[in-house]
Design goal:
62% helix, mainly alpha, binds heme C, Cytochrome Bc1 Complex, Chain D, domain 2, 119 residues
Length: 119
């Protein structure tokens, strides 16, 4: 096949454009949905607080935590590489999408963590 320069460019443009679409679609799937995460977070609220600002010292605050940290922690509980009797049970049932949604929700909440100023 002997393509002229213009048709080669068209093929290249089509190739690059389809690649861009694939990348865009991929990141849309990987990203969590805040609203879906909020709905799924009802299970977590008793311990971590409805907005992730836990008021119980033994339960970590999740509000404002890095999204990637929450994803990583939940996957670690699910796989057993991070062990905790309570969280293993909750993480075991979560899908990758639910984990992404929960992480999107809690990371989008404002944290009430404060720096304690020494007197
Ligand atoms: C019965 C109480 C309880 C419930 C319900 C619960 N958690 Fe936890 N969660 C804990 C405790 C306790 C820890 C600390 C465990 C440890 O030391 O690893 C924890 C830790 C975590 C961590 C790691 C935080 C960090 O700073 O490393 C994440 C993320 C998390 N939980 C998310 C969730 C999500 C999402 C849900 C709901 C699907 C949930 N938890 C439900 C008690 C709970």
């Amino acid at each position: 096949m002997n393509m002229n320069k213009a048709s080669k460019l068209r093929v290249l443009a089509a190739y690059l454009f389809s690649g861009t679409l694939l990348i865009a679609a991929g990141s849309a799937n990987a990203g969590g949905d805040v609203e879906a995460g909020k709905a799924a977070s009802a299970t977590c609220a008793a311990c971590h607080g409805a907005d992730g600002n836990s008021t119980i010292g033994t339960n970590p605050k999740l509000a404002g935590q890095y999204e990637s940290y929450i994803v990583q922690a939940l996957k670690a509980y699910r796989s057993g590489s991070r062990q905790n009797a309570i969280m293993s049970g909750f993480a075991a049932a979560l899908t990758d999408q639910q984990i992404a949604d929960l992480a999107a929700y809690f990371s989008s909440q404002e944290s009430d963590l404060q720096t304690v100023v020494p007197k």
